[in-house]
Amino acid sequence: MTLFNFRPELRGSGSFSGQSVPRQLVLELLNDAVWAPNDGLREPWRFIYADNDSSGRLSGLQEPAPAYLIVVMKEESDPYKRDEDFAAVCCLMQNFELLACERKLGVRRTMNNWIYDRKQMNAFGVQDKERIAAVLEIGFWDGDPGATPSPQMAEVKFDLL
Amino acid sequence: MSLAELIRGRRTIRSFNQTPVARELVAELLQQAAGLYPSAEDAVWRCIYAGTPESRKRLADYMMEHMAGSRLGKWMPGKMIELFKKRFADIPGHVVVIAGTGPDRQASDRNYAAVCSILQNFQLLGWERQLGMLWDTEPMMQSEGFYERLGIRENERFVGVLHLGYYNKAPRGRSRTPAEKKWTVYAGSQSLK
């Protein structure tokens, strides 16, 4: 298989079945995903995993899902580094989503309002010099997978200098 | 090669050989890359490609123009600047990537995240074709003058220049911190608030 021929059931939305997500699987995929390019090997990420939220705090902020991966990134004071770090974290999440897809695991990447709310962030243990890049909602898709037709993709704008 | 092997095997390439890169391939891989992102149709972005000797030289001039006027540039001998320019102009291709910005931080972040993710797909797809890349975000290059030269508009932001080409030798990978060491489990706050 090549990535070029990879035609995954790319779904960024849809509902999950009740099947639980094995933590080991998420960790395994993350250990591949961390091979994302990142400037100066700063590895500006860390993960807060929630698959047993006894307080139900997340259920008020996110759509129902068997598991949530809160992707936390360091917030550098240098704006250039901050952008580079955000880009690196996005590469990591993209790796993770591709790998998950290959294993029939569904991922919905969300960047809801609350991730910008310092008080909400702190409740999950996010520190002051950190932010939440995104929350990945993880589960096995409910219903027939391959049925979703890929949306009409516009041509990428590619101008010559 | 499995997907995991591809992701683990990809390297940032800084030294390219002179094998020409087909413009059509670059455009095709970018299109593929967008197709591997779930809601790519919502992403607002564009690319400017410099793949001819003439356009590469022009881009190198744009990149160094501001640097030459900067404090460091004034201190840098003209010969060195010319050397930098030549190095850039010798690279087979450069993709300048520009993303749209939204009405607020959340919208801008979402779009920037989408574009960065598509670029990771692009880097992986390139790697699969022995095409190496360097995603360049050198702060010294990021100047108003440079943006103006590229025609970056008010509601847009610069994402980076991806230098690309074939390579003779890939550097060794530098190991990553295991995910377990950067992982905590949230089980809900036990305190009564």
From TrEMBL, chain A:
Chain segments annotated as transmembrane: none
Coiled-coil annotated spans: none
MF annotations from Gene Ontology: oxidoreductase activity
Protein name (Swiss-Prot/TrEMBL): Nitroreductase
Organism: Paenibacillus jilunlii
TrEMBL record, chain B:
Keywords: Flavoprotein, FMN, NAD, NADP, Oxidoreductase
GO molecular function, one term: oxidoreductase activity
Swiss-Prot/TrEMBL cofactor(s): FMN
Keyword Oxidoreductase on entry: yes
Domain Nitroreductase, residue spans: 7-166
InterPro entries, per database record: NAD(P)H_nitroreductase, Nitroreductase, Nitroreductase-like, YdjA-like
Keyword NADP included in the entry's annotation: yes
Name of one Pfam family that matches: Nitroreductase
Regions annotated as coiled coil: none
Family membership noted in the UniProt record: Belongs to the nitroreductase family.
Name of the molecule in the record: Nitroreductase
